[in-house]
Please model this.
Amino acid sequence: MNREAGGQQEFWETGGLYRKSDHPVVELFARQRVDYLAKRGLLGDVRSLLDVGAGSGFSSAYYPDSIRVVASDHAAGMLAGNPVRDRVRASATHLPFADGAFDVVGCWELLHHLDDPVAALRDMWRVARRRLIVFEPNRINPGHIVLGLTREEERKSLLFSPGHVRRLVRAATGRAVRPQRCGLLFPNVTPLALARLLVRLPYRVPLIAISQLVVVEKS
Model:
């Protein structure tokens, strides 16, 4: 169950079961998420962003053009399909960058794939100058329950309650956080017609949202 070693490596190298970053449902999903970050003022002061666990580009391709995005992933096979120019193959727990090298470090649905998420968060925190932005599954969403029970690579998502996320972030950064539940659209399985309806709904959703968002500020 380690994204970065062992039996799951072939799964990630071949791209898993994921849609490509230019799929219309993926675009709806990513733009809604990035727009929400922008409306919260989390991207306006950002000139550089490290996208950890970037894979084939869901979380890399739709940030504003004013931000230099560097995509990092341990799986060369997935990273090869990432459309951004700057790509670096690296472990999430040993990022090859200087302290404070990026205004923002972010990861989208990465931590539940790792054997040591605290170590990954700690290194992401190290290379972030201003803030850390983390999205993880909301374990009580019915869709995540199904995925967690039926797909080995998603099994650990069943651990990701708000309390679990808070404990991971506190252990890695020393900061107390309050996750926000958000989003209703599954980028890899939602049909396009349904996705167009779901993105019209409010992004902040209590209880059954698909994701948890955590923002950790350095200052």
